[in-house]
Amino acid sequence: MNTNTPLLTDLYQLTMAAGYWKSGKAEQEAVFHLFFRKLPFSGGYAIAAGLGDVVKWLEGFQFGKAELDYLATLPGRDGKPLFERGFLDYLATMEWRCDIDAIPEGTVVFPHEPLLRIKGPLIQAQLVETALLNIVNFQTLIATKAARVCLAAQGEPVLEYGLRRAQGPDGAIMASRAAFIGGCVATSNVLAGMTHGIPVRGTHAHSWVMSFDSELESFEAYAQAMPNNCIFLVDTYDTLEGVKHAVTVGKKLRESGHELAGIRLDSGDLAWLSIEARRILDEAGFPKAAIVASNDLDEHLIESLKHQNAAISVWGVGTKLVTGGEQAALGGVYKLGAIRDENGAWDPKIKLSEQAAKVSNPGIQQVRRFTLDGEFRGDAIFDEDHGCPEPTHIIHPGDVQRTKQMPEGATHEDLLKPVHRAGKLITSLPSLQDIQSRCREQLTHLHATIKRLQHPHEYPAGVEQTLHERKLAMIKAAKETTP
Prior knowledge:
By secondary structure, this protein is an alpha/beta fold.
């Protein structure tokens, strides 16, 4: 199924687009921001991901004959065509002309910070909302999960094993991509390997062992077939006996000029079994043989196993990585920040809510990150139309009583970078390997307390004070004019 089409959207995006066209607002310039309100996994940070696939998806942003023919068949409540022919003709000639600014993939990000800023014709910026949220929400969620898992593994390699449990083929490919950004060193997903250049890993399953008369015979046959890829799954029957069988075959491999790469544990008490397996392997002369563990791992279980001094050296993580585990989705949203008035000036817009954290920030937003002594010290969301005053004070998005001044002497960087101008890509996108390196480097600048799994310290990220004051004035004015 081809998903590289503007019909990867919710119907209401198209009904609004038809309304913009009918009311003469289609070409009015607008600015939207894509952001999330709450960190996933009750964690202290998130990892921005998905921009590369956003750019690829936008390459196909054109209403072709098949899409338009389908839209022409949709009925309204009265049984007549839902969309006017003139609107469909307008879509047929529409070309993507928006500007995109984005926080680079692999960057640590925090609530309410725009990951993407879309500026251009109102109709176009509206039509891409659903697809951009679909791509960025999912990949940011999985990249964040992967980063947490990899930090729990304390530098030991993590393999992504989630293809068979992923949310469909497209979800599996995106999950592999995002997991690699977050720090996984390889995937079992061969198509993701071909598509994105991710290293692929894998050996055999229990069915291989069960297809032979004995476990030892199965290991010997596999060693003959794949002498340069021998990690034996040892828990089909008796785990420690399986380790001993791996040692037996490992000695024969060594005689033929090859080496036992390791064993894999997929069930049982992984801490105790890994310690015993390590003892057997070491005593037999295989101190470099890896012990790979799988079996519904996540960052919490890995952290527990590390505390138990488990002798595991490689971690295979599947279901709870590629699905997000305990968190089904990132709650990313897409809100209008400003619209160009008839005089050419920007008119900031705001969405109100009974919940303070759900009141949107107005204006053309940018994120400024402050760094001191190699540590990220805080982020300020400010309006580019008004600038970011110094010294910079920020207000917590959900609690106006919580304020903080950015430290004196800190350097700063504005995180949203130009990607598209007038619909054209104006920068070269980094390789997936470079994005992964950026993620690892970014995490080194966060204080350790922000990265802990349980009750992390809250990173100071908020709305710059003068923007906050304009926001309050807009809220007050809106409430005064509301009947």
